[in-house]
Amino acid sequence: MTSTPTQDETATDLLPAVPADAPALAQLEAVGVTAWFGQRKVLDRVSLTMPAGGITALIGPSGCGKSTFLRILNRMHELVPSAALAGEVLLDGEDIYDPERRLIDARRAIGMVFQKPNPFPAMSIRENVLAGLKLTGTKASRSERDALVESCLTRAGLWTEVRDRLDAPGGGLSGGQQQRLCIARSLAVKPRVLLMDEPCSALDPTSTRVIEETMVELAREVTIVIVTHNMQQAARVSDTCAFFLAAHGTPGVIVEHGRTDAMFGSPQDERTSDYVNGRFG
Ligand SMILES: Nc1ncnc2c1ncn2[C@@H]1O[C@H](COP(=O)(O)OP(=O)(O)OP(=O)(O)O)[C@@H](O)[C@H]1O
């Protein structure tokens, strides 16, 4: 006798499996983060907990410091020569800026997907997924690499579209596919957190929706922090939200943060209400 799966069983079966060796979900916490470019302070004592296995959206008008804050979360801020920083960023309680810790460990644990899809255009789709392994010096056999390529492309929602052309150049994919390839590349080094800086702003609505679905599925295995200007996107995908503001040339601060449904449904601060309802920004 065959049994008909329930709707829930069917939905779960359709989701790509979380790999058995996936690292445990991690919480990211910024504590009193202040940032400067030269003499100019652009963030002032920003503290925020980004819960494990959740999607946190950073919202706010242009120039309030969202991207700077995101780049601080994986030590990219320090790549700018004039940049300085105070405060702590804790990954499961350990400061990623601790001088004892290696920069590469922070970048591997906390991956980044950028606004503009940036696959290596001449490299094949397969090589793009595996590129991070080379950078981090990770050794893997041919069969392990094949399994990793399939697993990462599946979890990034791209496998069925590219399985027959893994040796074609990554640059030949559509913009939305390239962005999912970049997500697959980030996943290959088994990050614990994925930072996404306006990952859909260069994409059409259909590709945007696919990336959003991918994000929601990935949150089962990796903590996600996303910068977005799209309030509907923040409301659709995120569990928690932080509203940044830099009023009249002052450094950026978090005006309000909390559960996304509360931030959109019953914001405590009038400025949050004005922003999420499109009255400025
Ligand atoms: N490399 C840099 N050198 C000097 N100043 C910078 C640099 N990057 C950003 N800034 C300044 O820091 C402030 C915060 O910029 P940031 O890009 O973090 O804001 P944002 O909220 O992400 O803006 P947007 O939504 O437009 O991307 C801005 O005043 C910006 O001009």
Bound molecules: adenosine-5'-triphosphate
Count every beta strand, where a strand is a DSSP E run of 2 or more residues: 10
Sheet with most strands: strand arrangement: 6-7-8-3-9-10
Question: How far do the termini sit from each other?
Answer: 60 Å
The count of helical stretches stands at: 11
InterPro entries: AAA+_ATPase (IPR003593), ABC_transporter-like_ATP-bd (IPR003439), ABC_transporter-like_CS (IPR017871), P-loop_NTPase (IPR027417), PstB-like (IPR005670)
Domain ABC transporter: 26-276
Organism: Nocardioides flavescens
Protein name: ATP-binding cassette domain-containing protein
Task: Summarize the structure in words.
The chain contains eleven helices and ten strands. With 281 residues, the chain is of the alpha/beta class. It has a domain at 23-118 and 192-276: P-loop containing nucleotide triphosphate hydrolases (Rossmann fold, 3-Layer(aba) Sandwich), CATH 3.40.50. The strands form two sheets. The protein has a six-stranded mixed sheet with strand order 6-7-8-3-9-10, with helices on both faces. The chain has a four-stranded antiparallel sheet with strand order 2-1-4-5, with helices on one face. Strand 9 and strand 10 (253-259) form a beta hairpin. Helix 5 (142-155) packs across helix 7 (175-187). The chain is globular and about 55 Å long. Adenosine-5'-triphosphate (ATP) binds next to helix 2.
